[in-house]
Amino acid sequence: MTRFAWLQSRTQTLIAAALLATVAVAAAITGVQLSHLYSSLVAHCSSGCDLAIGQFLSHDTFMQQALEILARAVPVLLGIFWGAPLLAREFESGTYRLAWTQGVTRPRWLLTKLAVGGLATLTVAGVLTLTITWWYRAHDKLGTTAYAVFDRRDIAPVAYALFAFASGALIGAIARRTVPAMAATLGVFVFARVAMSAWIRPHLLTPIHETLSLQGAGPDAPVHLGLGFSNGGPLRVFAQGDGPPNSWALSSHLIDGAGHQVSSGQMAAFFHQHCPNVNLQPPPSPTGPGMVRGTAAGPGRACLAQVAETFRVLVTYQPANRYWTFQWLETGIFVALALAAVGACYWWVTRRTN
Amino acid sequence: MTAAVETSALGKRYGRRWALTDCTLSVPRGRVVGLVGPNGAGKSTLMHLAVGLLRPSAGTISVLGGDPGSGSAQLARVGFLAQDSPTYARLTVGQHLQMGQWLNLTWDSDFAASRIDQLGLDLNQRAGTLSGGQRAQLALTLAVAKRPELLMLDEPVAALDPLARREFLQTLMEVVAVRGVSVVLSSHLIADLERVCDYLVVLVAGQVALIGEVDELLACHHRLTGSRRDPLRIPANQLVIEESHAEKQSTLLVRTQDPILDPSWAVSSVTLDDLVLAYMRQARDAAAKSPECGLVVAR
Amino acid sequence: MIDFHLEPASGVPTYVQLVQQVHQALQLGLLEPGDRLPTAQQVVSALAINPNTVLKAYRDLEREGLVRARPGLGTFVVGRLPRTDPAAQAKFRKSLHAWLRSARDAGLSAEEIEAIYRTAVRDFCADEGVA
Predict the structure, then answer these.
(1) What is the ipTM of this complex?
(2) pLDDT at residue C131 above 50?
(3) For residue B271, which residues of chain C lie inside 8 Å, CB to CB?
């Protein structure tokens, strides 16, 4: 049965392998070039590195974009094109009546097909993610934080791919029609990823809360402070705190002395009391949206100084050293979902009498 | 000797519709059994139950004494040809033979190769480009090469042109002659099966309307033609299956083991076609199943 | 070796047709003692009929003493059809002719005569246990 399952999926796997090889070769060549560029531009720069780093980061944007697209697309594509048709096609074309009346039992048939396809998925996703992670190693250190590219590096995408494949197979077994199964697999995948990123992942580990003083706010500081009007509304304070370097900032709020979040009413009262010379309404002919930063006119600066004395910023974040913990958690969850899909698929195909 | 297929109050339900109801039958081994019935009678359902593609909603079924689809051993004993001869369109003929070798416990690769050769099929041709008759022959080769004791064929010739149909049956009968397999084949046309079947099961609306050896069935049914009369005056040992009365003439289809002694009847034999149609009409009119010949016979 | 053919619409059972065709072949001299009949496989391959039918026909012929099955070798013709004496045949034809004339004189139509004849032959054969 293993040989037959391979025979059935041989063509599509070899095509994927060929494409993967192309990508890997391109990445290898350009990646080595990047290495040289890094050595020459960045490694030895002592001052004025910003320019050199900027040059480095903007090199070969085509490859950057291509790899980012692949990193996002390949896991779900594997689910749609390998997972969904795996069983749906057999039911749709009626060939299951041929396959189930040879000499292999239904459980063995199913598990072998899933194993062969799953292994191929794992291999393709693994090699691709490895390649991309390697290619981006310098970029990620210089131009972004690890958390910002969390779902396109290291091991998480492999788990996404396995989940997409397994859920695709399950959906295909239930739907028994290939094209609807493919569409539903896409939908389920998108929902799962969004749900995880937005609602679940931030709360997997208790985040760290840190209160930052607004004194010394500035462009290079971890806190930023400003006054301005947004969308034609009344005067507002813009206060934002970053977590430590490379951390994942979840939220930042302006808080008062007691530690409570400052409401707009509180803010309006503060302006009345402490910022009498500042216009609370936007100018009639707006010079444009945006903030008036600390370099504004005198009354504005005095007001900001008052704000900085009175209020502070509460930053909620996940620290950098938890990155790999999150990777393992994410992988574990999606692999568990994949296994659950396999179990449900097994039950559906072998127990259901139709 | 265990029966080829034996059922007891077998029922199968799809949602709320019962495709088979209280179906009890037993067909012997070593025969070519014809399973006849109108579309929707439950023939495919019965076949699928027999090869383990479906599980019963009620009652039991045993095939060659074993539980259908219960494991590799049982699967090896039964060869199945599903309706419309499903094949993997993208795989070649040769790859189908490889599949047979890989997925079956016993596999007669010499037989398979020589059959494909005889049929003139190209090993490298994709199954999706074969004609209907060629696909049916390929599927039959696959089913026979695994050396089963029983072959079940679900409407194998329904979609074939007359030449392909004849060639298919020739191949099938050759296989029976050489290997002695039992065969159950279904059709909604008795004409397809008349030449080859020596045992008959008529299935109507999910129930058995008629069952028995073809020779016996033909021998104990007669058409009586004579002057118009009341059929209640027929002796008790002759069972009237169907009757039609014209102004001056009555025609009866009767079932009896005894000779017809009344000289006022002209007695003629009945074709299998007429017989099957009569029972299908009778079953459709929901008459009760009758005793004597035509009953479930276990051999 | 003879080729069998089938008349499906004739109403005559298949195996009877095969037996009759062997009889005819013997009568016409197409088959002689020592000739081999086609195997069941060959017959069904040509006609697409049930092999049991062929075996039944051959068993009947064996019972009539016309053929013998030799395991592994085939079924061979061993006998001849009993040829009735032409003189005896002529005598029976004459008495049948007389019977027909008297039936005609009694006012019976051709169909009636045929019906009576067929019924009589069938009942007679049934009594004798001959197919």
Answers:
(1) 0.88
(2) no
(3) 11
